[in-house]
Amino acid sequence: MPRPELTPAAFGWDTHREEAFVGYRADGLVPGRVVRAERGLCDVVAETGPVRAATSLASHAEDSLSPCTGDWVALRPATATDAATIVTVLPRRTAVVRATASRTSQGQVLAANVDTVAVVVSLADRIRPGRIERLLALAWESGATPVVVLTKADRCADVPQAVAEVSSVAPGVQVLVTSATTGEGMDTVVDALSGTVVLLGPSGVGKSTLGNCLLGEDRLATGAVRSSDGKGRHTTAWRELLPLPTGGVLLDTPGLRGVGVLEVDEGLDQTFPEIIELAGDCRFGDCAHTVEPGCAVLAAVESGDLPQRRLDNYRRLLRENAYAASRTDARLRAERERETKKEIARMRRAINRSGNRKR
After folding, report:
1. Annotated binding-site residue? 290
2. Options 2.40.260.10, 1.10.40.50, 3.40.50.2300, 3.30.360.10; CATH of 272-358
3. Which of 75, 95, 193, 293 has a CA-to-CA distance to 67 between 20 and 30 Å?
4. Does 202 count as an annotated binding residue?
5. 260 is in an annotated binding site
6. Is 341 annotated as contributing to ligand binding?
7. In the CATH scheme, what is the homologous superfamily, with its name and number, of domain 4-89?
8. 207: annotated binding-site residue?
9. Where would I find the H helices in 99-258?
10. Ligand-binding site membership of 289 (annotated)
11. H or E stretch including 342?
């Protein structure tokens, strides 16, 4: 018998998934969860315990169809002559997906079937609002619940100010403060991070240290940041699922050097809710919030109610999202080109009007 902590039930298998799996069982398949994925091979927790399984999916299959850490799969058990094989990836309830650096529209699934996305931010470094907004857009779009965890509070001179700054770019998101050195806030973090939890953030922000605190032991490798630039070294080399002693599962990820957005329309709406609300009062329904008359968003910027930086990053992420979507969609690409021409024309008209007024 496998150890209780190494069964699908310990990794989140529930009655709803079991009911949906009846047809697979009729074909002799069993459920399992991918705890680590490599090229062509996966470590899977199945009913019989941990197994090493090959995948029958084509090597050229899209990343969205390939097994990823956190995926639930239908597994054909090993026989006397054949190794265990993953037959199919079961439908994902949630997925954290980023755009790849290649010139394709194919996304990379960072984590599947997660319940809580913890965006980890170090208080020992300069806070980067744009990076937080970018990660929150991915988190909201995934369908999971985002939480911001501020680490290394013992190295911050003004924690309340830092919390206020982060909260201003994370509306509707719980912001937690922790210190692995002093233990501050860890009980609150344990209570807030439930189900399958993925830690997202660049190297050096303290993800692995935070993970070890959640695990109650030093399971994850940690390393000091470089003194030359304050950046961290990659101590986590792969994505891996680990059961938490308090229940739930931790998905540790390598540090993210760059995070491209892909199909995050809803995620952007939830990351910038005040801009979406203001846009409802714009004179024109297709207002781009650049130079249009009667733009409620620009009026809010002028009055100081909306920071210019936040609007700039919103528009930057919108353009990036639209570009990623148009890479393989001729219609969207043509529409993007038309909108670009319209925006240029609007700006020219605004410049001409401004010049006429000066005369």
Report:
1. no
2. 1.10.40.50
3. 193
4. yes
5. no
6. no
7. Nucleic acid-binding proteins (2.40.50.140)
8. yes
9. 129-142, 159-168, 186-192, 207-215
10. yes
11. helix 330-358
